[in-house]
Write a structure and sequence with these properties.
2 copies of one chain form a homodimer.
Chain A (H helix, E strand, L loop, with lengths): L3 E5 L4 H15 L5 E5 L2 H4 L24 H17 L3 H17 L6 H10 L4 H8 L2 H18 L6 E3 L5 E6 L6 H16 L4 E6 L9
Parallel strand pairs in A: 1-2
Antiparallel strand pairs in A: 1-3, 3-4
Helix pairs in contact in A: 1-4, 1-8, 3-4, 3-7, 4-5
InterPro entries (chains A, B): DSBA-like_thioredoxin_dom, Thioredoxin-like_sf
GO molecular function (chains A, B): oxidoreductase activity
Pfam family, one (chains A, B): DSBA
Chain lengths: ~210, ~210
């Protein structure tokens, strides 16, 4: 089974729902997804507007620099890279716990949330603390994801990349943890990307938003 | 059978393919579509950026003012409103003939193309000439379409509005005049808009464009 990729940013509620969808399919053994990071702060940074390749990188910034989303997303990305050193399941459990804390329980994306997610994911907390200190390596790993997302032209999250290389931003309003529902929503996404129409975009008119369940 | 609406601009090749798709389904008696105009020049005008309602209207501009797309789209819209006075079939035949001249035969969107489309659509040419002189009324009709598109929040063409009020930009790369294919592409659009996921956007990553057939 060839893996899909999901690019996500912890600050984004759509990315949270995308990761929940992916987790349902993954747990059922129906799809594989590789977790990768895309930074909305970097993607939307004015210095990067119109550039072929980014000139402003989140990974070049000090941890205490910038506005709230910059600081919180860098903190979360580096923590997630550290968590991933404890294996694939740990990576998913940590990422989902952190997403849920922020977007379901409406907590701040900060050090407290990171530590609560580490506990919820049953990480080896001593190992996690030690890995988080290896910051150069964590930043290099994050940089690799950000460079790949720039190469693909990711602009929002979640963006799913299919095994055939098709890639698109998939923004939806509702949450599912139900397998049959997740299957349908995933199948529809694939049908749009594989349609002979060559669909580039389906996007609601501004004043006719999608319905929340 | 309740009608769908298609908002389009003659300068847009995606709108052309959207109208061809609609025509196939309409001719087969499977769907109805009301033709309405949306102006990309107005929608993208800097004076309208961030405005709740447009302050710059194409219908307030002289016919010979502005850059190429402004002049040619106003010319085409007013001619299409005049053609529509000769009935629904005339309206479709004229609009499609003008679209094909510009986007299939790569002609300029100008007075020559308008007259060639009028002939191709078998319009009563004397009536057409007389109706085109009734410019205040033509502009008022165009203004009504532009106001409706602004109310819905249309931002690109084609935008289809379904009988239930769902509305989205549907951008695809390939042309079909085949009924079974048109059915599939239309069905998929409806499935996306009606999905319980509450899909707001599916949009390809910038460097992974949709495939042209």
């Amino acid at each position: 089974m060839t893996s899909n990729t999901i690019f996500f940013d912890f600050v984004c509620p759509y990315a949270w729902r995308g990761l929940e969808l992916a987790q349902v399919l993954r747990k059922a053994g129906e799809q594989q997804f590789t977790l990768k990071h895309f930074s909305l702060v970097q993607g939307n940074h004015p210095d990067n507007a119109g550039q072929k390749e980014p000139v402003w990188w989140l990974t070049d910034q000090p941890g205490d620099a910038g506005e709230r989303f910059q600081k919180s997303s860098l903190l979360a990305f580096l923590a997630a890279v550290a968590a991933a050193r404890q294996g694939e399941e740990a990576s998913w459990e940590f990422s989902l716990a952190l997403f849920r804390a922020v977007h379901e329980d409406k907590k701040s994306l900060d050090e407290d949330a990171v530590m609560a997610a580490a506990k919820a994911a049953n990480l080896d907390l001593d190992g996690f603390a030690a890995d988080r200190k290896d910051e150069d390596a964590l930043r290099a790993s994050l940089r690799s994801d950000l460079a790949e997302s720039a190469e693909i032209g990711v602009f929002g999250t979640p963006t799913f990349v299919l095994p055939g290389g098709e890639a698109a931003y998939y923004r939806f309003e509702n949450l599912t943890r139900d397998l049959e529902t997740a299957r349908q929503w995933w199948k529809l996404y694939g049908e749009v990307l594989h349609s002979g129409a060559g669909i580039a975009t389906i996007k609601r008119a501004k004043n006719r938003p999608a319905k929340k369940a």
